[in-house]
Amino acid sequence: MTAMNVLPQALRAYAPRAQFLPFSPPDISEEEIAAVVDTLRSGWISAGPKTKQFEREFGAFIGSEAALSLNSCTAGLHLALVAMGIGANAGGSASDEVITTTMTFCSSVNVIEHVNATPVLVDIDPQTLNLDPAAVERAITPNTKAIIVVHIAGHPAELAPLQDLARKHDLRIIEDAAHAVPARYEGQMIGNIGDVTAFSFYATKNLTTGEGGMLTGKAEYVDKARLYSSHGMNRDAWKRYSASGSWFYEVVAPGFKYNMNDMQAALGLTQLARLETMQQHRYAVAARYNAAFADVAALQTPTARANVQHAWHLYILRLNLEALTIDRARFIDELKERNIGTSVHFIPVHLHPYYRDRYGYTPDSFPVAYGEFQRTLSLPLRSNLSEGDIEDVIGAVLNVVETFGR
Ligand SMILES: *Cc1c(COP(=O)(O)O)cnc(C)c1O
């Protein structure tokens, strides 16, 4: 062993990694590959027995009354609004209002436009980056029908005050849990708290089916969503063609084509079985980053409140810009120079041209979200990071801070 190897990491000369570290390639093992191949050989590749099994197993894992597998989380959010009759396109009114956070992926808000209701954006809690219950309360009007709660990064939003508001004003709670599997609020599993919850199994998420989603929650809504997820047909397609099935079906609503298929479900079943192991790795990576960055003046590590179990989907690092000579964009470029891939979650919805122009927003319409947006970046956080990868990320971040610190 040479003298170099016994020096603590911070004292070693910084050397950038040789190969680019991508932000979020999926964690796919030989088990997933075998499961998908098995399905390809089974004679049934569209919605069928595997999607049913995945619904059962995921629903049992969450502990929810009902579960519906879909081709995306976005489809789940859209169907939730349809099932609740919110918006002119779903049997409600164009004046129906749905409150949600500006700090989210666009699809949480696009779905409100899809049903021809009015999205009402609110500002965020600067600690967790989740929607601020006080801002939600101020935004409620007699037209408010629902709140779409996003658990950003996998840290559950403060659901208790939101549930109080929902009871008081007769509002539905729809949760966007694209980041929050598995997560708990006050000990209760996310997916089993609000009226309905939509999960995402997109390629970058904690559990992936390539593309896919699941809607869990109250059977009254999930059953209606099921009908609308398959053209509004009152029979499952796979039953129609199987030996025990019948050719007969009736269209009772102009539904959508939102189902998951058996190849995706085979992937999902294997990922679900591996989820706990994959999560333990995520928790360990987040703990390593927290320990490395906690005492660095230019950096702010993510909040994890004591009343939640964080899913650690994202590690959103915040820059204390007054301690740096560069901005967030340059910080990201400098990490890229050092072969570390990062991302930003999210560009607030009110900054996007469609929403900005349609609703007349300025950046300061939501000053907390705008301010936080300018200093956030997401570091690689996934179950397939090696020890060397973790050290390379930490080394690169500390080197950028050291090079551009004030
Ligand atoms: C990924 C994501 C979605 C969309 O998920 P899809 O399954 O791709 O539809 C929705 N909301 C948030 C917060 C997301 O990050």
In short:
This protein has helices at 3-6, 30-42, 49-62, 73-83, 107-114, 133-139, 159-169, 219-229, 237-241, 262-293, 328-337, 353-359, 367-373, 387-404; strands at residues 66-70, 97-101, 118-122, 144-150, 172-176, 184-185, 188-189, 196-200, 213-217, 299-300, 308-309, 315-319, 376-379.
Q: What does this protein look like?
A:
With 406 residues, the protein is of the alpha/beta class. It has 2 domains: 3-25 and 273-404, Aspartate Aminotransferase, domain 1, CATH 3.90.1150.10; 30-271, Type I PLP-dependent aspartate aminotransferase-like (Major domain) (Aspartate Aminotransferase, domain 2). It is 39% helix and 13% strand. It has a 7-stranded mixed β-sheet with strand order 1-9-8-5-4-2-3, with helices on both faces. A 3-stranded antiparallel β-sheet has the order 7-6-11, with no helix packed on it. It has a 3-stranded antiparallel β-sheet with strand order 10-12-13, with no helix packed on it. Helix 3 (49-62) packs parallel to helix 10 (262-293) and helix 4 (73-83) packs across helix 8 (219-229). The two termini are 36 Å apart. The relative contact order is 0.16.
